[in-house]
Every structure is written in C-alpha cells, then in structure tokens.
C-alpha cells in the first residue's frame, strides 16, 4: 500500500473461531428508524456477519461498507455494523452508502471492551472506538470466521469473507 | 422482531413532549412496549406514514387489539380506556 511500515496495533483479546461471541443490546439503526435489539435476536434468525468499524465518516468505514455492498454480502447473510456513531449518523451513513444493512450504535464502546477490541484514538482525548474487526456467527453466536485489524489502518480480505459467508 | 417482543410499539421522536406524555401513561400502567425512534424531518418518516397513514409522532401500534393511532391525546384516551380505569390523566 505504502513504501513505509504502517503503524501496528497492540495485541487484542477478540473471540476466536469456535468461541461464543458476547451478546449485547444496543439501538439498531436501519434506513427508517432505530430500536433496541440484541445480537442474539439476530442470530436466532440465522447467521450474522458482525462488522466493527471506525466511526461513520472516517474513510475505513466507507471502504469496508462499499466493498461489502459491491460484493452483495448483505444480500447473502444478515450483516450488521457497530460503531460509536449516533443513530442519526448511522441513518445518514446508510443512505449515503446505499447499503442494505443495519448498524448498532455503541457510543461508549462498551461492546468493544466486551470483545477485547478497544481502540483508543491518539489525540482525540476521551474517544475510544472499535478496532476494525469482522466476525461471522452462527445461530448460537459461535464464531465461524474472524478477522481483526493488526495495523492502523487495516482492511479485511473480502474474498475470504465472501467464502466464509458462502459456507455458512 | 422475534416472538417475545412487546405487543405495543411506539413510534417516537427523541425529546418530543407529546411522545413522552404517552410513555408516561404506558409506564403508569406497567405496559411493556418497544420504541422505534424516527427523525425530526417529516419527510424522513415514511415508516410512520406506512403504519399509521400520517407522518406525525407519537404513533402507537397495539397488536393486542389491532389498533393503530396517532396524536398523543387520542393515544392517552385509548390507553386509559383499554388498560386503565377510564380516567384520563
């Protein structure tokens, strides 16, 4: 990508393949409204691709969602995002990206703590967000596939995600 | 969403006093409800229009009775008649 070493992120403590992903309840936003929803409500209906990303407006969020959208991933599997952005920002983001997905709002990043993927932002004092990470969960929230950012920035291998989703 | 969802759904706007008036009555009667929050702009409230025929909030859907209604005074009347002792707060 660039001709110098990209900054490494510290070790993380994210759930691994075979682990049960922590459940949580947060406002879940679609293009029309938001309401409290639990991750387990979604997995009860089938596999879920859970995508943690930077706050809406940062370019990695745009890249990740454009790529998932262009590969038709949200049409293949329930796909939900999580970021610290507010429900209002999420609604705008979904409209701008034209993506058929829903986004959890987790402003305090407590879910990042539960998943061991906090990312304290340098010189944005008081702001912790979610380290970019992708989990494919089955109906029991067991992790089937996992990707966690190792660098800042870092992006998943979308072909791997598509392959994992196809097997789900 | 799933089968254990409350029968009552309230479409509401954050900090809308008419919505809070309805919430107070729901709470007074110990009624379980779920909230769906929409945007301040009327033009961004298609879901409310689809459900109730209007873009105004609050709008309440009660699957116990099959009733959908708008306007807080109407909703409060309805809740008191259906779940209370009929005295309007």
Characterize the main sheet of chain A. 7 strands, mixed
The biggest sheet of chain B, with number of strands, parallel, antiparallel or mixed sense and barrel status, is: 4 strands, mixed
Residue ranges of chain B: pLDDT <50 for 5 or more in a row?
none
State the CATH architecture of chain A.
3-Layer(aba) Sandwich
Q: In percent, how much strand structure appears in the residues of chain A?
A: 25-35%
Question: How many angstroms separate the termini of chain A?
Answer: 31 Å
Q: How many beta-strand elements of chain B?
A: 4
Please give a quick description of this structure:
Chain A is an alpha+beta fold and 168 residues long. Chain A has helices spanning 39-43, 59-70, 73-76, 87-97, 110-115, 158-167; strands spanning 25-29, 34-38, 48-52, 78-83, 102-105, 118-120, 128-130, 133-137, 143-148. Chain A has a single domain (25-167), classed as 3-Layer(aba) Sandwich (Glutaredoxin).
């Amino acid at each position: 990508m660039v001709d110098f070493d990209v900054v490494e992120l510290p070790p993380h403590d994210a759930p691994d393949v075979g682990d049960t992903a922590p459940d949580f309840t947060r406002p879940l936003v679609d293009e029309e409204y938001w309401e409290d929803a639990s991750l387990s409500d979604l997995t009860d209906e089938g596999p879920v691709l859970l995508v943690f990303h930077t706050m809406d407006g940062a370019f990695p969020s745009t890249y990740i969602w454009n790529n998932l959208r262009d590969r038709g991933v949200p049409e293949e599997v329930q796909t939900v995002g999580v970021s610290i952005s507010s429900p209002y920002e999420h609604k705008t983001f979904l409209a701008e990206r034209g993506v058929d997905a829903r986004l959890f709002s987790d402003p305090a990043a407590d879910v990042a703590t539960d998943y061991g993927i906090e990312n304290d932002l340098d010189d944005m004092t008081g702001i912790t967000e979610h380290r970019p990470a992708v989990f494919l969960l089955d109906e029991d929230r067991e992790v089937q596939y996992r990707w966690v950012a190792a660098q800042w920035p870092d992006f998943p291998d979308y072909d791997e995600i598509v392959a994992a989703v196809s097997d789900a | 969403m799933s089968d254990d969802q409350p029968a009552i759904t309230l479409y509401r706007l954050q900090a809308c006093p008419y919505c809070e008036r309805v919430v107070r009555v729901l709470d007074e009667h110990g009624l379980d409800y779920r909230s769906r929050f929409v945007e301040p702009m009327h033009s961004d409230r298609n879901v409310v229009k689809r459900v109730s025929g209007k873009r105004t909030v609050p709008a309440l859907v009660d699957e116990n009775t099959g009733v959908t209604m708008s306007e807080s005074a109407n909703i409060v009347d309805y809740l008191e008649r259906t779940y209370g002792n009929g005295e309007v707060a």
